[in-house]
Amino acid sequence: MSHRILILAEHSQNQLSVGTAKCVACAAGIPDAEINVAVCAADASAVAAQAASLKGVSKVLTIEHPAHAHALGALIAPQIAALAGAYTHVLGPSSTFGKDVMPRIAALLGTSQISDIMAVESATRFRRPIYAGNALLTVEVTAGTKVVGTVRTASYQPAPGGGNAAVEKVVSNVELPTHTRFVSVSAAKSDRPDLQTAAKVVSGGRALGSAEGFKILYQLADKIGAAVGASRAAVDAGYAPNELQVGQTGKIIAPELYMAIGISGAIQHLTGIKDARTIVAINKDSEAPIFEVADIGLVGDLFQVVPEIEKLLAG
Amino acid sequence: MQRILVGIKRVVDYNVRIRVKPDGTGVITDGVKMSVNPFDEIALEEALRIKERGGAEEVVVATVGPADCQQQLRTCLAMGADRALHVQTDARIEPLAAARVMLKLVEREQPFLVLMGKQAIDNDNGQTGQMLAALWNRPQATFASKLQIDGQKAQVTREVDAGLETIEIDLPAVVTVDLRLNEPRYVKLPDIMKAKKKPLETLELAALGVEAHEQLQPVRFEPPAQRQKGIKVKDAAELVAALKQKGLL
Ligand SMILES: Cc1cc2nc3c(=O)[nH]c(=O)nc-3n(C[C@H](O)[C@H](O)[C@H](O)COP(=O)(O)OP(=O)(O)OC[C@H]3O[C@@H](n4cnc5c(N)ncnc54)[C@H](O)[C@@H]3O)c2cc1C
């Protein structure tokens, strides 16, 4: 039996997210998959072209409406639910975008959702982390039920380019609610690599002591071309903005190198870095739990060690 | 009556080290400390603050689950909730079923606002609030770190991947809360005594006309792969050398 998979595209400023390409990679693991991507936007042309170039995608559907200038779950969900009838699976990334809208789609379809798919075992069997990644659960979807899921993007490499799918405009007669309105978004502009996709991440905790203290991490990050991350304690204390938080309630990342500096290694933090290739820990407490997961550990005072590292790299 | 409904869940306490049963049928919960899901405590705290500012007259907490859940409902009453509703069942409840239960309670209680945690720290599903909003055909504001109510509308600041997003929603609506919305109060002993006298109503799942209706069957639980034990270096120079050797610097 062939499977028809609809992926909800995530995008901003005319750029398709890497997370969407990772959803395509996840979907490609479902046997006999025919993969379509749906783009909701005010003007979908640029994003649709990017989606059409992903290998494995056979068709891109665009749903254009001025109200889709900002991604609002309450407006997107009924559009996607209306398309879903023809599909066996509906997937989206487990970014804050996907986490917001996908359950709303699932409920409109009367189906349960599988959150954070990390492995596909069959068209109806999926593995996902629970308890902040301290256990893995394999679930089987009841036969005949539509599968709605979010894809744990840290578990997948993005689907490559080189595809050439058809782009088709969907004429939607779904009435969009007016009860939810976009007001503003404040996002710090930064020339640094994006935390979610960076190959290297330098991350700081409560030990940095202040926003001022965090500057030594930014300097180190700039020197090695890394993104900056933070623990919840550092964000709560106002040393770093919320979008830098790594962990169960922040970003789940999979860099080549993760440097945890003045971070104790609480389970909720470790959830976010389980897939990091090499973890470095710098902490003055040799008993800190971060050392249990670190590939390279250094017991020492970060205010001494970090400037030393920088100096060594300069020389 | 201006009412806020708060959905809560009984979960394994966030400090407990989770272990998978050797036979792979679940995680060990026997003799383990159970608590109110931390995100739900924040939801309740927000409801109490709205009431204390005069923005609501009554705060009702609700949960669906086995008899033991009443302990957590009592904790919520001790925190300051006025009443509790316990929808009793021993069946496994998926988020969609929980949302259907919440919808029944919404129809009964007619709240102007439903507050819930953005996710429960046991199954990490993060679905129930959005599902309720969908079934109720009302707005949702997820991952809230700030909530301002202004008559028939609310402005909600949301923690999103890009930073902070603000949306405006018409009430009634569902708001799911993130960690930085507030810091929940501690429960004092006299409050625990007082909470024993507050109303806690038990309803049967079947009497609400909701079926547990499982769509996702757990097949196997397993522990995650362990990382290999790493090395210790003694100073910055050794660290830089080790990273260079791995080709990371
Ligand atoms: C529901 C829930 C969700 C959560 N989600 C997240 C999440 O997504 N992400 C997250 O990070 N946390 C999360 N947490 C919080 C988590 O439990 C920890 O409280 C938090 O990660 C601690 O941050 P920290 O390591 O920076 O601070 P601490 O635990 O205080 O650790 C600071 C560390 O710095 C070291 N140190 C101090 N001074 C120095 C120095 N001069 N040089 C070197 N080392 C030094 C100390 O030895 C210590 O190990 C969550 C908690 C809950 C309950």
Total DSSP helices of chain A:
9
Overall pLDDT score of chain B = 97
Chain pair forming the biggest interface: A-B, 87 and 82 residues
Q: Give the distance, in angstroms, between the N- and C-terminal Cα atoms of chain A.
A: 61 Å
* Helix content percent band of chain A: 25-40%
The overall strand count of chain A is: 18
Q: Bin the strand percentage of chain A.
A: 25-35%
Query: Regions of chain A with pLDDT < 50 over 5+ consecutive residues?
Result: none
The major pleated sheet of chain B works out as: 9 strands, mixed
Oligomeric state of the chains present here: heterodimer
List SSEs of chain A in N-to-C order: EEEHEHEHEHEEEEEEEEHEHEHEHEH
Radius of gyration of chain B: 21 Å
Radius of gyration of chain A: 21 Å
Strand content of chain B: 25-35%
* Average pLDDT taken over every residue of chain A: 97
Helix content of chain B: 25-40%
Report the bound ligands by name, code or SMILES: flavin-adenine dinucleotide
List its traits:
heterodimer, A: 315 residues, 5-stranded parallel sheet, 9 helices, 26% helix, B: 249 residues, 9-stranded mixed sheet, two-stranded antiparallel ribbon, 31% strand, globular, binds flavin-adenine dinucleotide
